[in-house]
Design goal:
The structure is a single chain. The chain is α/β, with parallel strands linked by helices. It has one domain. Helices cover about 35% and strands about 20% of the residues. The chain contains seven helices and eight strands; from the N terminus they run H-E-E-H-H-E-H-H-E-E-H-E-E-H-E. The strands form two sheets. Strands 1-2-8-7-3-4 form a six-stranded mixed β-sheet, sandwiched between helices. Strand 7, helix 7 and strand 8 form a beta-alpha-beta unit. Helix 3 crosses helix 5. It is globular, with a radius of gyration of 17 Å.
Length: about 220
């Protein structure tokens, strides 16, 4: 939908800033600075030690509320600032690379039905647009799909999440032709990202790493 129509729809529906609840189509001026990117390397228990992961911020406060409003409550006008955060993570991960292919973690059919869209794929497309503005040759390749159904991850611990996701994805279509980055909105235990990386590696492709908007780390964030 055109951004002006999104804004008008939000006003009609009484949209509010996800950070503070004040009337706003996206984020109010007071809360917007909370979404400034500070991309850095992060760690997560399920990711192999040789796989680098970068997050633009921690999954807390205003950012956590913004992600929930975007993903769970259909506030698609928030996609733009979240895409900027993901683009910052990609830049930190790949450095001076001039070409990159973003490979979004696939949404399940259940998730797509509930949310009305493949939200991670849309997030990847938003980030790619930002990267192209910066002069990077960036595209999005939905090269992964689910091979079987998985259980809801929200109540599972680290080992259970890893078991739930193991073997749950497969590649679809042609593999990415340029340097690939697995992208997602949030990194928690790393089980989902690890499964995505496993599929690409099994096909002979070594991705540059994982880039996300936010991380809920099992170990503290560390500087690069």
């Amino acid at each position: 939908m055109h951004p002006l129509l999104l804004g008008a729809a939000d006003l009609v529906l009484g949209a509010e800033c996800p950070g503070c609840g004040q009337p706003a189509t996206t984020l109010c001026r007071a809360c917007a600075p909370a979404l400034r990117p500070h991309a850095r390397l992060v760690t997560a228990g399920a990711l192999p030690d040789d796989v680098r992961a970068v997050a633009a911020a921690e999954n807390e406060g205003v950012l956590r509320a913004t992600l929930l409003a975007w993903k769970e409550h259909g506030r698609f006008g928030l996609l733009r600032p979240l895409g900027l955060l993901l683009a910052a993570s990609v830049c930190e991960l790949v450095g001076d690379e001039s070409s990159v292919t973003l490979v979004p973690v696939p949404s399940s059919r259940r998730s797509r039905r509930a949310r009305g869209a493949d939200v991670v794929a849309e997030l990847a497309a938003s980030a790619a647009r930002r990267l192209r503005v910066l002069g990077m040759d960036a595209d999005v390749r939905p090269a992964l799909t689910h091979a079987r159904a998985v259980a809801d991850q929200s109540r599972l611990d680290v080992s259970s999440r890893a078991a739930n996701l193991r073997g749950a994805m497969r590649r679809r279509g042609r593999p990415p032709s340029s340097r690939a980055v697995v992208v997602d909105d949030i990194l928690t235990t790393g089980a989902t990202a690890a499964e995505a990386v496993r599929v690409l590696v099994a096909d002979g492709l070594r991705p540059a790493g994982v880039a996300v908007v936010a991380a809920t780390p099992l170990r503290p964030l560390r500087s690069r």
